[in-house]
Amino acid sequence: MIIGVPKEIRPGEERVALTPANIAALLKKHDIQILVETGAGVAAGFTDGQYEAAGAKLADRDQIFSSAQAILQVQTPGSNTTNGQDDLDKMKSGQFLIGMTDPLANPGFAQQLAQSNVTGIALELVPRITRAQAMDVLSSMAMIAGYKCVLLAATTANRMFPMNMTAAGTLNASRVFVMGAGVAGLQACATAKRLGAVVEAYDVRPAAREQILSVGAKPVELDLDTGEAEGSGGYAKAQGEDFLKRQRELMTDVIKDMDVVITTAAVPGAKSPILVTADMVKAMKQGSVIVDLAAERGGNCELTQSGKTVIEHGVTIIGPENVPSSVPHHASQMFGKNMENLLNLLLDDQGELALDFEDQIVADTVISHNGDVPHTRLRELLG
Ligand code: NAD
């Protein structure tokens, strides 16, 4: 079969769905051809020459959409609602589309693909089982975002992170507080720690305590009943408003002493919980910084504006969008490896994509097939 990798078109997207190394590895294993759009990897630091040397053929966008049986994208039209429609219009009956589709926030995309008889595979739905870890783009990208958000905070803060004893006096270490200790939060803790900050973190999931300690940060304990906070796959369950209200009351006291607050709390398929209210921001130190990694899902801070940096009550609040794309080389390296591993599972001996719905990875990730939406959760969301 022919696999196509078009250049990403969502504004600001610098990643690419396969790197030259992934292509060389796939061509070695499978009887397939891979077309890559000219310039597709340039923003991520992969040249056309490197793709050709790896065995890919360079092509233009229209050629890729018309001749490839499978299109691989970082941001499919499902997650690229800005200008993705152009690509959707190019898709043909019988084709596969594999990439991020924002399935839980945009379930209607599965229906659109089904109407065009395109088989859609949403990478965000890769299950959290050991066998699928190597295909889990959410974890890969969260790791990158957790690292980068600390750098954003460090370069915005009006103080340094490490303690310094100098002839001109002692500079205290910055205090960093991370809310939500999942993959991004733990990487944020580790990165802030490496930069010399004093790091504390909090999560609703009781299991996070050990993980916070393991990256050298101090778990913050709140007098809250979090017994049932963990749902399936290690994800947090959505908390009720009473819980969140009490959490905010207790948290006010913690964050008023912090120099940097990083929020990463997410609940899959739901709007992010508000952990930091305007009043809590008001109580923070002048010159402190909040980086809200949940900005794109409504934000964990009430005052966050997605895609903007604002100063409120003397606190700088950064609401970055698409953070992994700002580290495009390593983000593509990880994304591409996840994609390569998934293709290794799906490609059969003839180099064709074969879907075995008995396999949990297939059943959980295929959002449209044979003109239908086979995915139970998406069907429920579609009503
Ligand atoms: P996520 O991106 O869904 O959310 C980030 C964090 O926010 C989570 O730790 C969550 O508990 C926390 N959170 C939600 N509501 C909160 C609130 N009100 N207050 C404070 N924190 C809140 O999470 P994630 O990074 O995907 O990771 C969640 C868990 O799943 C972690 O334990 C992670 O190690 C695990 N995980 C397992 C696998 C696997 O088994 N293959 C893969 C990835 C992650």
UniProtKB/TrEMBL annotation:
It catalyses: NAD(+) + NADPH + H(+)(in) = NADH + NADP(+) + H(+)(out). The keyword Membrane does not apply. GO terms for cellular component: plasma membrane. NCBIfam families: PRK09424.1. GO terms for molecular function: NADP binding; oxidoreductase activity; proton-translocating NAD(P)+ transhydrogenase activity. It comes from the Bacteria. Residues 4-145 form the Alanine dehydrogenase/pyridine nucleotide transhydrogenase N-terminal domain. The transhydrogenation between NADH and NADP is coupled to respiration and ATP hydrolysis and functions as a proton pump across the membrane. The lineage of its organism: Bacteria, Pseudomonadati, Pseudomonadota, Gammaproteobacteria, Oceanospirillales. PANTHER family: NAD(P) TRANSHYDROGENASE (PTHR10160), PROTON-TRANSLOCATING NAD(P)(+) TRANSHYDROGENASE (PTHR10160:SF19). One of its GO terms (biological process) is NADPH regeneration. Its EC number is 7.1.1.1. Belongs to the AlaDH/PNT family. This is proton-translocating NAD(P)(+) transhydrogenase. CDD domains: Rubrum_tdh. Pfam families: AlaDh_PNT_C (PF01262), AlaDh_PNT_N (PF05222). It comes from Alcanivorax dieselolei (strain DSM 16502 / CGMCC 1.3690 / MCCC 1A00001 / B-5) (Alloalcanivorax dieselolei). Residues 154-319 form the Alanine dehydrogenase/pyridine nucleotide transhydrogenase NAD(H)-binding domain. Keywords: NAD, NADP, Nucleotide-binding, Translocase.
